[in-house]
Amino acid sequence: MKKNLFHRLSDISRIHHRAAFRDVHQRITPKKSGFLDLAKARYSCRAFTDKPVPDGLLDQILEAGRMAPTAVNKQPVHIWVVRQPELLEKLGAATQYLFGASLVLVVGCKSGDAWVRKYDGKNGAEIDAAIVGTHLMMEIADLGLGTTWVGSFDPAKVKEVLDMGDYEPVVLFPVGYPDKEPSERHGVRKALDELVTRL
Known about the structure:
Strand order of the largest sheet: 1-2-3
Structural class: alpha+beta
CATH topology of the domain at 43-175: NADH Oxidase
Number of helices: 8
Strand content: 5-15%
Helix content: 25-40%
CATH architecture of the domain at 43-175: 3-Layer(aba) Sandwich
Order of helices and strands: HHHHEHEHHEH
């Protein structure tokens, strides 16, 4: 039985409706990423004012570290908050990169508590500590504070100053209010085509 004109028009309408949505992903404006803006704005701060970091902001920074993902959620990580002037002075003997900050966060890991990859025995403790450190660093930036990732330090001296036990120091973060603009190298990045392989 032949379709009448009304049914044929209805079919055409449905086909047109489906076709109109075929390129919808190209026509919708992509969601703007607040995180991407933060990642672009964050920079390695190497000079701080003498204004102290309020406890409320410090608690938010530490909470960001606490919420960081770790392998199998084993959390083989600990954070030391160093504010005592005498301890800061001793830490200064372990690294020249505290930049006079009145607050330093030290992230350490314990390999015995970490997930281990069964295929090659790779221990995930340092990776977990790096993830926690990244959360701390980005929250610091989001709160309008400054820091830089300090990996150049004498681990034996840091362990001695902080009495870290079985933990190994991974990264130090001097924290404070920035007193210096980003360096001219801050925006230098590899092009995506150089950085990424699309398969």
